[in-house]
Amino acid sequence: MNTFPSKLVEDAVNELSRLPGIGRKTALRLALHLLKKNKDIALSLGNALINMRQNINFCSVCHNISDTDICPICADNKRDKSTICVIEDVRDMIAIENTQQYMGVYHILGGIISPMDGIGPDNLNIESLINKVRENKVKEIILALRTTIEGDTTNFYLYKKLKDTEAKISVIARGMAIGDELEYTDEVTLGRSILNRTPYETFIVD
Asked: Residues 97, 102, 103, CA angle at the centre, nearest 5°?
């Protein structure tokens, strides 16, 4: 157990170590680094985090994080609103945007179906996707979820819910290794996976 010369430093380390991928040693190194810097740097960091947490919005159309009620992608008239790419979270959207190969819009589920983790369809942004497809002229839905059992389960659930609509349902090409997450896939591979997407029906085994 670490012994700290200051309760203030200990509190800072405890909070920093709550972040994903940050152990107590790294948290201590970060805290001490901030102490060595000008106070303005730490204050600027703290204010940025507080401002983000207090003022961030979630797009009322696609559930993307945004500074406004509607995110810049949904508000962009140059984007193809008839094509919706369904993704797990905002990290996947950023990864796809970095490929510069996709000009449609997105729908962020906020996770994937995972009974082991207690996450079912009602815990995700699925109903709003179904309503969006039924109420708008959507031509294609691209399922771009991770290639795991949970991702495939979510894909199949969405297919069953949307197959009776007029929208074409496709899935990104399996150019990625099984279990790969979109955010860790290189831009070339991810871009090709989107461009080479195939009808979801081809993955269904009777």
From this structure: 105
